[in-house]
Write the structure tokens for this entry.
Amino acid sequence: MAKPHDMPPGEPMPARQGYLLAVLVLVASLILVAVYATGAGTRERALAEARLAAEAEQIVARLRQQLLTYELITRGGVSLLAAIDRPSARQWRNYADGLELSRRFPAMLGLCYAAQMSPAQLQEFQLEERDATRTLFSVDPPGARPRYGPIVLLEPQTLANVEAKGFDMLTEPVQAAAMEAARASASARITAPLTSVQDGAGAGLVIYAPVYRNGIVPTNPQVRDAALAGWVCAPFRIDMFVAAAVPSDREGLSLRIVDIGEGDDATDDQPVFPTGEGGFPDERVSGVRHSVVEQVYGRRWRLDFHQADTGGGAGLLGPTGTILVGVLASLLLFALAMILARTQSRAQRIAARMTDSFRRSELRFRNAIRFSAIGKALLDHDGRIIDANLSLADILRSSPEELMGQRLDALFSSVDSEAESRVREASAGVYRVTRELRRDDGDLRHLQLTFAQVPGDEDQDFASLVQVEDITGRLRAEAQVLALNRTLEARVAHRTRELTRANEELESFAYTISHDLRAPLRAIDGFSRMVAERHAAAFDDVGQGYLARVRAATARMGELIDAILKMSRVSRTELRREPLDLSAMVADIVAELAQGEPERRVDVTIEPGLRASGDSALVRNLLGNLIGNAWKFTRDSDPARIGFSRVHEGDEEWFEIADNGIGFDQAYANKLFRPFQRLHAAAEFAGEGVGLASVKRIIERHGGTIIGRGRPGEGASFRFTLPDEPG
């Protein structure tokens, strides 16, 4: 191993210098941690105070909005009292029920009306109440006073509200002060904190809105006092009122509301929320604080907010947390630098081994080129050969030494530079071209050249690797195959013409059968009928039976001729594909069959929405044959059932027509689709034996498949496919 002072320039620094760098990294990072920690506490506290101030503003806005809602509710009661001289308890209840206080405003304990009365007005009101309700209206507390303010209307009718009815609010100083302030200002006013707004309800407040007779507010204070009819009041619990505005998911947030009295100079602080001792953290509790002073309906509230240090958010680590994290990060950096220093010498050893491995790899690469059975050569940036193997020299009829320094393009007879440039630009580093080589003996060879980029070092001139293959034999074989293909195409065209001519002859034969055979059949049938009608007396019963058999055989021969023509039409008809509603087609066919045999009762089940594509006439013929067979062979079943549905078997989807008729033996299933093959006697079930053969031809013309399954006495089922395009 070289000594540090002997190491050449550009090599990695010694491990000792790496250890020194690790120590410098540790010292520098600790200094940065100290600098940052000095100002981190102040920045974090300022950020926490800004967040608390923003959230406090939102909470104050929500509290203000709730008080505004309570004021609007009392204003609605004032409007009702102005519209009606003295509303009844039912009218007041309807107004309160429409507000849905218990659901929408759970903090509000009720909505009441306290009437201002003189002793004479109170006595008159008591007499009216007694006449109207048969109950005595009493004022609490009792006693003679120059003016009364009892609660005469209160909703909802809870147990606590019923007991509060008749309470004279003017006897309670805190409430009386708010009532007088509302009367003097002709606007809503709120009370100072109350220990209890209702039995068992806890601390709360009451908001009052003055009510003037005829709904007119006099501008003169003396006249205003005389025109006062009473107050609409809304008591509410302070704890539920605050809970609706403060987010429940904010951890460590505390709120205190202090009533600091009326006017700007009032200092008689009274706690509004929370009540009791220990409800709000004192100054010894760490955290940030924020206070807001609000004018609230004639009162001044101070809202104190406190956010405890929860330690859950980023930026609340504090100086100590910042120092700990910074020191930990510094130690991690120091450990990383030490690891890098320790692995330095190991990296040098690995680099030496990799250099040796690279030399061996290059040697293997050159040997692979030299001894390859395929011609290969290394080219420089100008396309000159700088190394070639023996296989390439054999293809070019030269030696590797003679090929050195020659341009590869100059060795071929034809080069399309523009075409090769387009191929090279379109390829991703590897491209193939075909070139011609004419040897000294006049033999023309076709060579395929495959070019690939070869990365090299800066001092090497390798640019690309070319692989040369002689494809002359392959091209000649391909030419022979093309010639054979052309011959095959001619044969196919010839056979197609022969098949077309044969089909035409078959059609002509079918028409010949229809024309030439029907004439003698009609003659046989006609003369047999004339003999049976005119000379019946000349024959005994046996002779007449023979004549009947002759006529039946003639009719049967005519049916067979019709069946042969029907089979020929199926193969000859032009196929026109279109979307088809198979469910609707089956329903029409069943309706026609039921109309032909109204006395039969057949339970037919058709799955809706079954669709396919095909020739409408041919597919209807196909469905008619299958449904007709099911209808025919369920004649003796009770009840008879026929079903048309879609089934899945493996990865394929089939249409199925199933019945519970007489069925058939599965061993004879291969005869089902042959023309004129029958599995049941003609005397039992009528038919020519060509229906299923026609079905199979129609399905095969559509590129589909049909299979039949059955068991004697247990019914039969036919499954078929109608692909969108023939396979």
About this structure: The radius of gyration is 55 Å. Residues 140 and 167 are 5 Å apart (CA to CA).
